[in-house]
Design brief:
With about 400 residues, the protein is α/β, with parallel strands linked by helices. It has two domains: about 280 residues, Aminopeptidase; about 110 residues, Alpha-Beta Plaits, CATH 3.30.70. The chain is built from ten helices and 16 strands. The strands form four sheets. It has an eight-stranded mixed beta sheet with strand order 1-2-4-3-5-16-6-15, with helices on both faces. A four-stranded antiparallel beta sheet has the order 10-12-8-13, with helices on one face. A hairpin with a 3-residue loop joins strand 1 and strand 2.
Length: about 400
C-alpha cells in the first residue's frame, strides 16, 4: 500500500531530513541572496537521483518527478528558501553561523521537508501517475515576493500545473498535528511609508513651530478610522504603524517624522479603496494642522485563498494519513504570505505543520530570535507532503 510505503520511507529518512534541516538552519541567507542554499538543494536533488532541474528567478529551482503516464496531470509542491534579518538567540549546535541572519520563519523546515518528500516520491514513482513539480522558491519574505517572480518566469507552465500545495510551520499547533482551512485564509499585505514635514524648533515655544510629532499622533489615530469606521464588518482589516522616527530631544521638536506601517485585508475591491482613503486621511489631517505629508502605500502580496475542493480533499487525505485527532481546523490568519500569488493562478492549498512542544520549551512564535521546532515534526511534514501529492495526482486520472 502506497501510504504504508510513504510512512516507512519518511521514518527511515528522518535522520537525513534532520541533517538537511540543521545544515540549512545553520547557514541562512536573506531574500534573493540564497545562492549557497540553492546550490545545496540542487546537490541534494541530484544525490536523490533527480536530474530534471532548472533554475528560475535566479536562486529558485524547479524539479520534476515523473510517475507513470506523466502527461495525465501535474501537481506542485512548494517550499521557500530565504531567512530573516534576525540575530539568533537559541543555544543549539546548529545555531546560525551568519551573524544577524536566522531561519526564524521555518523555511529551513519547509525546504528540508520538500527534499525529503522528493526522495520519497522519486523512490515510489512507479506507484503513481502524473508529474510532481517541486518548487524551491526564493524571496518569500521580501517584496515583490519570489512567487511573483517565478510565476512571471513560467513556473506554473511546461508542464502546466493543475494544483499546488504548500506547507508552513505553525508554533500554535503541537508537533504531530497539522491544520487546514478552506476558502479565505491569509490577508493581503501592503506597506505604508509616511513622512510628515513641519517646522522644528524649541520645545518650549510650540506656537512658533509646526510640530510633526503632534501631527503624526493625530494621523495615527485618524488612520484607525479606515478600519474601524470605513470597512464593512464582513471584511476584516488591520492597519498598524510599526515604526516612528522623530529625531528630536527633550526640548527639541524635529522638522519631520518618518513612519512605516502595514495594511491587511481579505477583499481586493476594498483593498484598493482603502489605499485611497489611507492617503486621503493622512494628507488631509497633516495639511489641516499646517504640515505636509509624503505618503506611499506599496502594494504587496494579495490575499491567500485555499481552493475549497482541493483544501477539503487534502484535509481528508491528511486524516487518512495521520488520524482525525491530528488534523485541526484553522482560523483566518491576518499575516501575509506570497504563496497567495499561486492561489490566484491555480487551485491551491496552504496548510500548517505543527511544531510546538511545551514540555521541551518550544513555544516561541515566528519571526522571533528564539524560534525553534520540535524536530519530530520533520517526519510528519516529509511524509504528508508526499502523500498529499500522490492523492492529488490520483484525482487527476
Amino acid at each position: 500500500m502506497v501510504k504504508s510505503k510513504i510512512k516507512e520511507l519518511a521514518k527511515g529518512g528522518f535522520s537525513k531530513t534532520l541533517e538537511r534541516r540543521r545544515h540549512i538552519h545553520a547557514n541562512p541567507e536573506l531574500s534573493f541572496k540564497e545562492y549557497n542554499t540553492s546550490a545545496y538543494v540542487r546537490k541534494e536533488l541530484e544525490l536523490i537521483g533527480i536530474k530534471d532541474i532548472t533554475a528560475c528567478a535566479d536562486t529558485g529551482l524547479i524539479a520534476l518527478i515523473k510517475g507513470k503516464d506523466p502527461e495525465c496531470g501535474t501537481t506542485a509542491l512548494r517550499a521557500d528558501l530565504d531567512a530573516l534579518p534576525i540575530h539568533e538567540e537559541n543555544k543549539v549546535d546548529y545555531r546560525s553561523v551568519n551573524e544577524g541572519v536566522m531561519h526564524a520563519c521555518g523555511h529551513d523546515v519547509h525546504t528540508s521537508c520538500l527534499l525529503g518528500a522528493a526522495e520519497i516520491l522519486n523512490s515510489i514513482k512507479d506507484d503513481f501517475q502524473g508529474t510532481v513539480k517541486l518548487i524551491f522558491q526564493p524571496g518569500e519574505e521580501r517584496l515583490p515576493g519570489g512567487a511573483s517572480k517565478m510565476i512571471a518566469e513560467g513556473v506554473l507552465k511546461n508542464p502546466k500545473v493543475r494544483s499546488i500545495i504548500g506547507q508552513h510551520v505553525m508554533p500554535l499547533i503541537d508537533a504531530g498535528k497539522v491544520g487546514f482551512r478552506s476558502g479565505l485564509y491569509m490577508a493581503s499585505a501592503d506597506e505604508i511609508y509616511i513622512t510628515i514635514k513641519g517646522k522644528g524648533g524649541h520645545g518650549a515655544h510650540p506656537h512658533q513651530i509646526i510640530d510633526p510629532i503632534a501631527i503624526a499622533a493625530q494621523v495615527i489615530t485618524s488612520l484607525q478610522q479606515v478600519v474601524s469606521r470605513m470597512a464593512k464588518p464582513s471584511v476584516p482589516s488591520v492597519l498598524s504603524i510599526g515604526k516612528i522616527i522623530g529625531n528630536g530631544s527633550t526640548n527639541v521638536i524635529p522638522a519631520e517624522v518618518y513612519m512605516e506601517g502595514t495594511f491587511r485585508t481579505f477583499n481586493e475591491e476594498w483593498r484598493s479603496e482603502a489605499h485611497k482613503r489611507i492617503v486621503k486621511v493622512a494628507t488631509e489631517v497633516t495639511e489641516a494642522l499646517g504640515g505636509t505629508c509624503d505618503i506611499e502605500v506599496r502594494r504587496g502580496y494579495p490575499y491567500l485563498e485555499n481552493d475549497p475542493d482541493l483544501a477539503n480533499h487534502a484535509r481528508n487525505d491528511a486524516i487518512a494519513y495521520l488520524g482525525e485527532g491530528n488534523v485541526e481546523d484553522l482560523e483566518i490568519w491576518p499575516a501575509g504570505e506570497d504563496f497567495a500569488f499561486y492561489s490566484h493562478e491555480v487551485p491551491a492549498c496552504f496548510y500548517r505543520l505543527g511544531i510546538r512542544n511545551e514540555k521541551q520549551g518550544i513555544t516561541s512564535m515566528l519571526h522571533t530570535p528564539t524560534f525553534n521546532i520540535d524536530e519530530s515534526a520533520l517526519e510528519v511534514g516529509t511524509g504528508l507532503m508526499a502523500w498529499l501529492a500522490v492523492c492529488e495526482l490520483g484525482r487527476m486520472k
